[in-house]
UniProtKB/TrEMBL annotation, chains A, B:
One of its GO terms (biological process) is proteolysis. One of its GO terms (cellular component) is apical plasma membrane. Residues 163-250 form the PA domain. This is Aminopeptidase NAALADL1. Its cofactor is Zn(2+). Belongs to the peptidase M28 family. M28B subfamily. The chain crosses the membrane at residues 5-27. It is a single-pass type II membrane protein. One of its GO terms (molecular function) is metal ion binding. The keyword Cell membrane applies. PANTHER family: AMINOPEPTIDASE NAALADL1, N-ACETYLATED-ALPHA-LINKED ACIDIC DIPEPTIDASE. Homodimer.
Amino acid sequence: MIKQVLIGIVCGAAVLTAGILIGHFGITKSSAPSWVEDVAKDVDERLIEKFLSEVDNIQIQENLRELTKVPHMATTAGDEQTVQLMLKRWQDPETGLDQAWREEYMVYLSFPDPKKPNKVTVVSPSDEVLYTAREKEKTYPSDQDDPEVVQPYAAYSPAGHPKGKLVYANQGKPNDYQLLNNTVDLRGTIAITRYGGAGRGAKAINAAPYGVIGVLVYTDPLDINDGLMSDINETYPHSWYMPPSGVERGSFNGQFGDMLTPYLAAKEETFRIPVEDITGIPPIPIQPIGFEDAYRLICELGGEAAPTQWQGAFNCTYNFGPGFRNPSAFNNSDVKLDIFNYEEKKNSSNVMGVIKGSVEPDRYVIYGNHRDSWVHGAIDPSSGTSVMLELTRVLGKMVKQGKWRPRRSIIFGSWGAEEFGLIGSAEYTEQYFTKLSERTVAYINVDIAVFANATLRASGMPSLQNIIFKAAKQVNAPGLDSTSVYDNWIKYSNRTSQANGLIPNVGYLSGAGSDYAAFVHYLGITSMDISYTYDRSKTNARIYPAYHTAYDTFDYASKFIDPGFVSHQAIARTAGNVLIRLADSLIVPLNCSDYAETLEDYLNTAVTLYQHQLQERNISMEPLKRAVASFRSAATHLDQVIRSSDLANETPLTVRRINDQLMLLDRAFLDPLAFPDKYAYRHVIWASSSAGKPTFPGLADAFANTESQSSAWDKVHYHLSVLSQAIEGAAHTLGDVI
Amino acid sequence: MIKQVLIGIVCGAAVLTAGILIGHFGITKSSAPSWVEDVAKDVDERLIEKFLSEVDNIQIQENLRELTKVPHMATTAGDEQTVQLMLKRWQDPETGLDQAWREEYMVYLSFPDPKKPNKVTVVSPSDEVLYTAREKEKTYPSDQDDPEVVQPYAAYSPAGHPKGKLVYANQGKPNDYQLLNNTVDLRGTIAITRYGGAGRGAKAINAAPYGVIGVLVYTDPLDINDGLMSDINETYPHSWYMPPSGVERGSFNGQFGDMLTPYLAAKEETFRIPVEDITGIPPIPIQPIGFEDAYRLICELGGEAAPTQWQGAFNCTYNFGPGFRNPSAFNNSDVKLDIFNYEEKKNSSNVMGVIKGSVEPDRYVIYGNHRDSWVHGAIDPSSGTSVMLELTRVLGKMVKQGKWRPRRSIIFGSWGAEEFGLIGSAEYTEQYFTKLSERTVAYINVDIAVFANATLRASGMPSLQNIIFKAAKQVNAPGLDSTSVYDNWIKYSNRTSQANGLIPNVGYLSGAGSDYAAFVHYLGITSMDISYTYDRSKTNARIYPAYHTAYDTFDYASKFIDPGFVSHQAIARTAGNVLIRLADSLIVPLNCSDYAETLEDYLNTAVTLYQHQLQERNISMEPLKRAVASFRSAATHLDQVIRSSDLANETPLTVRRINDQLMLLDRAFLDPLAFPDKYAYRHVIWASSSAGKPTFPGLADAFANTESQSSAWDKVHYHLSVLSQAIEGAAHTLGDVI
């Protein structure tokens, strides 16, 4: 009987268990669809660790070696070689992306004529050539010597043959010419200027109204070499400093994108404005020269001595001119420019690559850098391209092996013709304006990855700050085993935030220094730009000294910028970490309260600088104050919703709603009519400004004009309304959705 | 033993069942979250049936009676009464919305001075007043007689006292004045014009360059009354026709929104442009009068007979003038205008109401109409407001009873100051630009709900056509028991579509005739406008004859426009049906292939009209052809994805992705720089055009200018590129997301 009872119990239990199993697994009615788990997935920290460990400095070094084999100026054969390299890597079946392709634009470029090199000469009254400036930079190591090295020139300088007395015009700023004009009749002169202080093209644009007919520009050793000048033992190849014959090339146009097709993608049949309608380029010939030639010209100048602030590193007094002093070998002689630049429409390629998102393929994280250089471009831009290739190798391998697929889509862009004015990236944003506006979560730009090997430098929208910090804390600082990139960074550059205490200082992207410009200013996409950079206690160089010269080579980069490529590796790890978090986080990791803090700082500055004078004119700052307060309140509320919700168990549409609010935040600051005089600047918080105040750019610029025109107060009031409405609009984007 | 076996089986079965139940319901591990079902819910057809059955014509009639008790011109006490009525209804605990509130804007309006009424007189050479036009309309039924009835006037006409010889200028079109000027020296004259052919303000703007100093405007019985004129037995109160003293009031400005605050919401502290910078308003005084006065003035005119097309319904020859004929009572006399209009900034209110969405509260379907009228405004706009109030009553009750909550949020807008230039709706779109752009699925406008009781009339983006058809098929045509609104409609107005065969003709929203303008042109929101309208075989009236007169009363509406309010009911049912489908459908019911068909029609017309001449100038239409083909291909593909997917079982993010593509389609056609001379027109497909061709408006307008200026070919080419890029952009929005 006991046995029977036991058997009964055992059987009963077995039947019950069978029933439970059938009930649980055999009946599908209310079981969750397979996607329920997928849509709630958050970033995987183990994957990030794996990514960090796979990023390899030697791979980056070898990428750089390959990228810098030949000069690869935009649209040259060397450029095409890099296009093919990118395509090969991104289409690699083992380590490539889902898809990669090229996109071409027919863009307006400017070149020197290889058959008629530009010439700068000193010509005597009897037309004897007394001196000829060097046409090409001197060759040191052989890896710099290539027939394709382009002669130094000023892209978009008109051709022409001006001849006149030389004057020294410091940096070619408006007030430099103004001061010089007080002493010297500038009509018919050639002005020599040094780099810095004003945009390249501005040095000629500012000169022309005074009757100056030609401009030279050089880099003073004071500004680039910490005063050092000798290539016997001081400059490259002995150090990172610029040799005497080094010349910074560059684009001398003032806006971004193809100049003939404003706001339109430059396809073959696209309407082009007449060439004579182009604005912002030099109206008179301009040519860059090395400081060895500048030394000869400047130290022979006559006239009054220039002011102390105009003096450079040469061991002579920099005089105003006009003309050379008496006695001197050049006495009574003119300087003559023979500029043979020509403009041409050429096909420039972007190379695009994609990893398709698994859960939200219609959300993009974009990562980009330009591919074109002036010469070999080891640092600018190939340091960044080497890093990008290493990122795509590591991520591509994980994708190809089936180990990972990001939640959102990742788009990689290798932009063409950046050096001529951010052209490839700008055309891309024009062509794909709608879908990029609708879907892009963020843009990461890594152009020059390593300027120097001291510390991280980051710029971007304040909402990205926290995720950059998080990533930087997980990466070891190069050469410092137990210190993170973050801890190293905060020693070099920091500020105190009311909400976050002492933190590294993240800069703003208010200019157009690299390909982030169209993303930030035209599309209103949350963007960042990072690199490794200088210890400012050790150098005052404007930029790394081989910038845009023939010396920016693999040899230079590997010996003097980042031996061992560990800073490159740190940038790859930091940028890649940010990229993965942006692509994989359930909630897009943008912090809107950090944005509010910046708006409040801007507002406080504006109140301090302007409120008193505005009150005198009955213009109220209250709408602006209310707008910033609305923004703060919406940001605080949204943050609180994010923190207090169990988002992994919420409906995916709730998560998406919050993510849309965060994604669209920067778009909300756009006003296509806010800056009618500034091409493609639409973001009211980050637009460029000439006023140089740490506050709202349009307001600062409008205010600066009130000194000269009294009607300008209307423009101040107008911009205050534009700004207040935009900030209120951004607050609406963040606020409760209904 | 058998018994034991049976007991065992029964027990075993019971235990197994218990196990199954425990396994199925007792263990929660993989059961679906509760929201899985909610997010997949589609529109409920039973709910639509219930909605249709609840819409009550008598409720609409009583709404209208209450709304038209007093005149409710914008910002008057009568307007405030309607604000209170809307708020009371929408805040009703039984039948109200989730929330309702008012929003105020301080807007620039124009009024006649009640203490100094505007005067139109005939003055003899000795300054004797020989004739005075009627100051107010004649009273028939008492419901029209109210001290608050505003004197007929031309809003935004300047004040002034011009006196001069009268001339007849037909409709005041540019070519009317040109023709007249061939015969008559127009300097110092007063021109009398009839409504129609040109915008109200244009009649004065076109006149001023010829030296005309004042303008009169009236409605010719030919244009409004099918020629009938007598109030003894022909016109209201005997029929719907305009009595002899009836005067169409109106706004004489040419753009929409508050004129002092372009692109900015008109808040108290907003920057306002100087009044003298306003463009598009009459530069000389203008005043509307009734046809009884116009008859006296025109039939006494001397000079040559005007052409046949200028002749109206009066039993006299319409002569050009100048001045009155000899002999006549007015011989040698002048016409004098004494206009005392003044401008004033006043607070105008929108009343807003919301039903919050359950699944996607961050998606809006907006339904709106203006609230302000010129006088009692029974038809314009209170017919629409009565319908809106009936919709909110029926929907609000379902919400309050817990029977329904839409998937998406529904926003109702009762706009202020539409009559002065669509001001309330335009200010709303300026203030909430960001979130409306980000989140609005569609806008439904029902202004005048019933012009007449013959047939449906609908205008809107082609993508909405199918859902209007679907709704119209489910509603009985008023007065025709077994015929649907759709079947009745197709008899009155139809076309053959390549894809859809014979279908009712849906118009386009290319002008700024009602509050849809800012939604369509400035925000790029998919919009529609519907009403019941005329049998064109029975009348040639420009519009219902009491339009903007003192006769647009409850008595008029209920006797002559829609006895029994059954056409109102049909509009409420049709519009409400569309509204529910837009708010509740799992996939937003917008058909992008129907949009493609319109683009193809536009393209074919453009090719026929322009290709030959473009080829002669080496301007290629290929980019436009490619863009339209891209759009078609993307639309076909997306349609196919929608049809072939089991969307109810897809991840809600897939559904959302498709819905975002459909929602953002019209936004993709926006280009804020496409029409630099047209205020707030940004939609490249629907912008207004003066060329009158059934094709892309900017292209047609640019082409029209090539006749006069040869440089205009550049503008044609430019606009072709703008247009092609916008259409390609729209194709990207619809295309595969990555």
